[in-house]
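== Sequence and structure of one protein ==
=== Format: two labelled lines per protein ===
==== Data for this protein ====
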Amino acid sequence: MEKRKAAVAGSFYPRYKPDLLRLIKESFENAEFGPGEELVSLNKEGERKVIGGVSPHAGYVYSGCAAAYTFLNLFKETIPDTIIILGTDHIGYGKIGLMREGEWETPLGNLLVDTELAQAILDESDSIINDNSAFMGFPFGREHNIEVQLPFIKYCEGNKQVKIVPIKVAAHDMKKLEKISSDIANSIKKSDKDIVIIASSDMSHNDVNSEEELYRFKEKDEKLIDGFVNLDPEKTLNPYPTPTICGRQTITTLVLTCKKLGATEGKKLKYYTSSEKSGRIGGYCVGYFSGIIKK
């Protein structure tokens, strides 16, 4: 069984377990940027209404609080069996690749790939390919945006061993996203497992050097968020001319898939920027969004 090593432990999040646990806990408990509550009571047999969510993928000191919002809502109804993680592509992969089997390393313990569900998706799809090179080795395997979701999953799973299906989505064509969303949704419908979907994405990236520029920056991101809340994939894929949102195709795939699974509502949980989190305006700025989709 191939093991995907933790490539960004010690940079995007702490390398050592005690430090990582402390930072995730602080992200949940942060009342200004995070949910202000810990995930303490889990109903393992509850009815699932939340079927998907958007989680950012920057360094935890910036994006961890927004991620905590997403994972709190994905896990507090009931602990899922499997999480499909839709990852973006910063490196030029250019395909839609899935990891069919193996495990991913984290400082909190390893996560197994759900080979049964992964194979079901591959059997359903002629667009998604089994390709470990998308996740293992250089250059594509060091991509961080799926990896940074995993410690949150390990933190939230309790005594249950949640599995994952990593899918790297390197396409921005609506027809292709419609097709793979149908393939994923059909595979979920045929399964008797409790499956949720995460779209890994940060929001806009740009220099911000004044309050006015920060306002305009946030105004752009709100256009995508509005599309998400209204389950409008056209507005999530192309919210404004030349968007700098790195995972808009993962968010769009999430919206399309969840609609095919009976979604009725998108909900904004939290949005803030790195400038606001750091308390400094001046220089490079990134937006972080947490949202969920319910049926």
Observations:
- The mean pLDDT is 95.
